[in-house]
Amino acid sequence: MSKLEDVKINVENGKTKLVPELVQEALDEGNAALDILQAMVNGMGVVGDKFSSGAIFVPEMLIAAKAMSKGVEILKPHLAGDASVSLGTCIIGTVQGDLHDIGKNLVAMMLESAGFTMVDLGVDVPAQKFVEAIKSNPNVKLVACSGLLSTTMPAMKNTVAEIKASGLSGFKVIVGGAPVTETFADEIGADGYAPDAGRAAIKAKQLVAVL
Amino acid sequence: MLTKRENLMETIKGGNPDRFVNQYEFLEIILEAPLRTRPQKGQTITNEWGITYSWPENQLGPFPVHTGDFIVLKDVTQWKEMVKAPSVMFSEERWEAAVKHAESVDRREQFVTVFFASGTFEMTHMLMGMENAMMALYEEPETMHDLINYLTDYEIEYAKQVIKYLKPDALFHHDDWGSQRSSFMSPDMFEEFFLEPYKRAYGFWKDNGVELIVHHSDSYAANLVPYMIDMGIDIWQGVMTTNNTPELIKKFGGQISFMGELDSGPLDHPDWTREAISEQVRKACESCGKHYFIPCLTQGLNFSSFPGVYDAATEAINEMSKKMF
Hints:
The structure holds 2 protein chains of 2 kinds.
Chain A lengths: L2 H10 L5 H11 L4 H21 L4 H22 L9 E6 L7 H13 L2 E4 L6 H10 L3 E7 L6 H13 L6 E5 L5 H6 L4 E2 L3 H13 L2
Parallel strand pairs in A: 1-2, 1-3, 3-4, 4-5
Helix pairs in contact in A: 1-2, 1-3, 2-4, 3-4, 3-9, 4-5, 5-9, 6-7
Chain B lengths: L3 H10 L13 E3 L14 E3 L5 E3 L8 E2 L14 H4 L9 H12 L7 E6 L3 H9 L1 H10 L1 H26 L3 E5 L12 H21 L4 E8 L5 H7 L3 E5 L5 H8 L4 E6 L1 H4 L6 H15 L4 E5 L11 H16 L1
Parallel strand pairs in B: 1-5, 5-6, 6-7, 7-8, 8-9, 9-10
Antiparallel strand pairs in B: 2-3, 3-4
Helix pairs in contact in B: 4-5, 4-6, 6-7, 7-8, 11-12
């Protein structure tokens, strides 16, 4: 097994203590930092697929993400100044009227693992705050709106409408959450929808690839 | 006509019910029993465990606050220093209203029911935040076992007091074990950490007069049903349609019963309609049948978030009873 494959598998398995050592070994062997990062991203991709299919659950996702973040800490000095590592900035938040955050946090974690630079606005976020965040953060490529309650779906519709009406461009809007469907996402003018955190990362990459 | 209690027993034993059990009608829940401080709408409070809850005006219920310094247990290895179970000793005056309510209940008609929340799993993430609680199951398993046992000990101490004063014959116990589509943790992990503690807690209640354990989890949790049976749950309340309830009834009916199938999300909202509720009640009753099933809004406790929804569901269930019995 190559060292990169070793890194990937141990991220998948959430080996938080092993991954930093393996990343250092991979660097010492002469592997490029970007290649090692990509191996970890690929590992998290497998994690996302397994979560979507129900093969693994929230603790496994979290521990895998932690393993990756430990590995990224080792890589950071070798990636400094390399703009190509980021897929762009993603603004994420749970829409106004909703305090649920675990789903949003899982999506944020998967998007970060996929290569986005995350700006997390938290919960109960008014539409205008999303717009302000898009204006005030550089290189925004994605805006992700989460909502768990059917009662806050009007707020999600309003949020997407305000973002679209703002005149700002250069990014896509993705929505998700328990009561959200693809049909609803299309109705409110979102650019994309994902039913869970694993598929959110896949959809996000597809959306920004066409920008 | 059977009493509500008799009809419930016929339903869950696979006997001869004469109508659908109508939501919570068989439980007389003694909410006056002292337990914990909860915020009212618009309030933020810190309860006896040190957990801060906020209930903003525009929300359906309170949420724990886990930003900044509000997390009670930041490092699970320090739980013994940071987590102090509140006293379960309350004055006679605090118990008075609950005792009076319990004494007024006709036990031939209904079960005198104690409500217990938050359950053991919920307490771990109320204290630590969800992400920390979940990761601790991997990173500090022995410590989590100890914390979970401590929380279980608290529940049993509380149970002793409730049993002394109210002599309940049912328990309505709140602990959400999943999201809409998935359990929060794998069945193996659930078995490892929560089965034995829950067997201990539910065993204590049942050894001391509680005849019926109704466990609330408005979620997907079909993969945990074998453990629910093992720990002594008689009725799983909050069964969402995502669980394929008719299949669960076929597979497990007779060992456990299922109370739900009227998902609150799509039915209980400001623009609710009687037609939508009636339609879902019809589907639920026809697909789940007369045994091991209680049609019920999945939300915990016997009310809806928006006025009229609970009563509309009750009326629709009565109509289905007329049609199907």
